[in-house]
Amino acid sequence: MAQRYVRVQSQGGQLHYGLLQPDQSVQVLDAPPWLTGQLTDLQLAADSYSILAPCAPSKIVAVGRNYGEHAAEMGGDVPQEPLLFIKPSTTIVAAGSAVLIPASSHRVDYEGELALVMGDRCVDCSLEAAQSKIWGYTIANDVTARDLQRQDGQWTRAKSFDTFCPLGPWIVRELSPGARLQTFLNNAKNPVQSAALSEMVFSPEFLVAYISQIMTLLPGDVILTGTPAGTGPLQEGDQVRVEIEGIGSLSNEVQIRPAMALPQTATAEASAER
Questions:
Q1: What is the pLDDT of residues 179-192, one digit of tens each?
Q2: What is the per-residue pLDDT across 60-95, written as a single tens digit (0 to 9) for each?
Q3: Residue-number span of the structural domain to which 241 is assigned
Q4: Which of 78, 163, 166, 232 could form a disulfide with 141 if both were Cys (CB 3.0 to 4.6 A apart)?
Q5: DSSP 3-state assignment of 34?
Q6: Residues 140 and 226 occupy one common structural domain
Q7: Could you tell me if 72 and 166 lie in one domain?
Q8: Residue 242: which residues within 8 A CB-CB, separation 6 or more?
Q9: Phi, psi of 17 (to 5 degrees)
Q10: Structure confidence by residue, pLDDT tens digits, 86-108
Q11: DSSP letter at 78?
Q12: Taking the CA atoms of the chain, what radius of gyration do you get in angstroms?
C-alpha cells in the first residue's frame, strides 16, 4: 500500500502532518511533507485525532471541461486551452464533513476530480519539469451550484460557497495514469461517474506548466484537474463518495445550509424608501 500523508488535529487542538499507519495511528512529521518534513517520535493513537483536509493551500486552481464527454454534456466543445477558474481555500472541507446546500441555489451538483498537490514554487515551468513539481495526489469534489453558474455567466459564485471543495482524505506520492475515477451516490452499486484519468484532455503535467505561465504556484497549492461525464444533482441527506484507484475514497454527507437574509442592493433599498 502506498504511503498516505495526512493532516490531523489532536484532541488538544494541535495541527499535525503525518504518515497514516496500518493501525490508523499517525506518525507525526515536524513540517508539511512537501517542505521536507521529517518523522518525529510522536505517534497519535487512532482515537486521539480528527482527520482534516490533507493540505491548506493558498489557492485552488480548477480546470473546466477537461474530459471530452463532460464538455459535451455541458453543451460545449472541448476548449483549445485549459479553461481555468479559482475556488477559494475556504471552500475546503475534510472527508466526513458535510457539504452544505445554500438557500440561494436549487441545483447543486457533485463533480468528482483528481487533485494535484504542489511540492515546490512553480513559475514559468517547462512541460519537462512540471511532473517534478507535483508532490502528490488526492481526491476532490468540485461541488457546483449549477443554476447559479448558468445564471451568472461566470463561475465565481457557483463554485465558491463554503464546503464546496471536499478534499482528501490523504495524499499519495505516486499514481497510475490509467487509474479510474468513480463517483457513487448513496452507496449504490453502480457509479454515476466513471472514467480513466488518462481520458483527460490536458494531462496533469501540462496543466502545471500552463498554469505556471499565468500565476505562481506555491508549495501546498491544489490543482483540480476536471470532472468526467455524469455530473448530477445532490439532495439533502445524500452520501456522495468519490473513489480513485491507488488513492482511496472521499465521502461526504449533504445537508441544507441555514438560510440567511441577503443584504439589500442599493436599488432595493431605494425602492423600500419610496
A1: 999 999 999 999 99
A2: 999 999 998 776 777 677 789 999 999 999 999 999
A3: 60-256
A4: 166
A5: helix
A6: yes
A7: yes
A8: 110, 112, 113, 139, 140, 141, 166, 181, 182, 183, 184, 249, 250, 251
A9: -100, 150
A10: 999 999 999 999 999 999 999 99
A11: P
A12: 19
